[in-house]
Amino acid sequence: MNLERIPNEEKLSLCRRYYLGGFAFLPFLWLVNVLWFFREAFLKPTYTEQLQIKSYVKKSALGLIVWVAVLTTWITIFQHFRAQWGEVGDYLSFTIPLGTA
Amino acid sequence: MNTSDSEEDSYNERSALVQCESPTIPSYHQDHDMSLPQETDTKRGRPVSSGLDEPGLVERERAATPDGEEEELTLKYGAKHVIMLFIPVTLCMVVVVATIKSVSFYTEKTSQQLIYTPFKEDPNSVGQRLLYSLLNTIVMISVIVVMTIILVVLYKYRCYKFIHGWLILSSLMLLFWFSFMYLGEVFKTYNVAMDYPTLAMIIWNFGVVGMICIHWKGPLRLQQAYLIVISALMALIFIKYLPEWSAWVILAAISIYDLIAVLCPKGPLRMLVETAQERNEPIFPALIYSSAMVWMVGMADSNNPDSADERQRNEGGALAQEGVESEDDVALGGRRRCSAEEDLEEDRGVKLGLGDFIFYSVLVGKAAANGGDWNTTLACFVAILIGLCLTLLLLAIFKKALPALPISITFGLVFYFSTDNLVRPFMDSLAAHQYYI
Known about the structure:
Chain A has 101 residues and is an all-alpha fold. Helices cover 68% and strands 3% of the residues of chain A. Chain A has four helices and one strand; from the N terminus they run H-H-H-H-E. In chain A, helix 1 runs antiparallel to helix 2 (27-43), helix 1 runs parallel beside helix 3 (50-81) and helix 2 packs antiparallel against helix 3 (50-81). The longest helix of chain A is centred in the middle third of the chain and has 32 residues, at 50-81. Chain B has helices at 5-24, 30-51, 55-64, 67-102, 126-156, 160-189, 196-215, 220-241, 244-263, 268-278, 297-301, 305-320, 325-336, 354-369, 374-398, 405-432, and strands at residues 194-195, 288-290, 351-353. Chain B is globular. Classes of the chains: A mainly alpha (101), B mainly alpha (437). Chain A binds chain B through residues 1-2, 4-5, 14, 21, 24-29, 32, 35-36, 71, 74-75, 78-79, 82, 92-99, and chain B through 184, 187-188, 191-199, 201, 204-206, 208-209, 212, 217-220, 222-223, 293-297, 299-300, 323-325, 328.
């Protein structure tokens, strides 16, 4: 789908839907939203809907940063303390590396 | 992996669909594209002729726009399309070969087989093995034929909801279940600890964004990437679960079936393509890879009296079916045949069915899995690309839907068996005797 050839209202609606969809635990969707609409929002000459698209892109970026922080924290904690957690660690693990305690 | 019947069904349908469809579609809808250069030629002719007084000159002017120019445009577009298809096909094969070489799961033969290949090959007796692989092939091909016919019938009787539901179910399975398996195996191979919450997030994001991109609207590049990934996943499943000899015979048989189904007047795939073209509808999303980068600059600015009408129809078309890039392209392409001022830069692109990706990758993957010699793998890779070039050339000549499997698979098979049996021992003994050529 090429953003060039759809009218501005549709672009806005698409951006908005991607933004709302990201609330369903979908930071990847927010990432796609930011990357896809970045040029539309910031590098194009102004048009009516651009302000709203800009706000959606900014909010998606914010949500994305929050999710990345949360995930990074969790992954770091898990990888570091997994061995020490014993049974709980095993229960949480999908794959357990061989050869470590 | 214990595969349940329901999984088998949707998987089968998916593979069947993809196989049938792709062959069908791999056929490129280049007729849209081909009409483009001709259109622009006549368009260019018109302004010139309107400026001239004598009708005689007009005639000559028109005649003077020689076929040479048209041919040149055809060739130029043809070459571009070849490149546009080389890249995704190569990427898919690279993903499959990389996985085969690194993750041993996909080369471990289990005693489990798909229900579509019910006969177990006995490695001891050559005759029996050959017979069983032929029987397996017959079973598989008949399943595919039946599925294709059901699909065509459903399409003819406009049971779109059913088809869409079927497609959504199978993409769901591909995007969630197969990628879950794949990730699990990759993590095991690299000895990485992974916890369930993170894994759930990854699979959930991957799957949902994939469904959105493929079945609804999404960036073109992302959609193409997802289609390549699901083709690779499917090819890996085939490589793992098809028995050795059956796989080769199935590849050969599928190419023949493809040839028949697309070119014979009563072939199911041909009927599917023709019906879709009659109704000016795109073939289903999630079954075709579209390389188009289309834009309608001309439409917005043109003074053509048709444009408003066309734009309405375009929007109608786009809204009526949940537009995916490929759908929009075909819908627009159908209309654009009659549009006046089109930017010469508009490129309709080519469409290749996903089944083609899958079977090309199966061939190269099996070449990589057996023996692990890079000569064979590279030879098959080159053979397939040559076949693809030739097919595109034929497409430029014939300008109608063509099967993409036969030529490439034939070359691939020939190259595989000859390289494996002739070149490899040759290279081995050269290396053993330290003789460099």
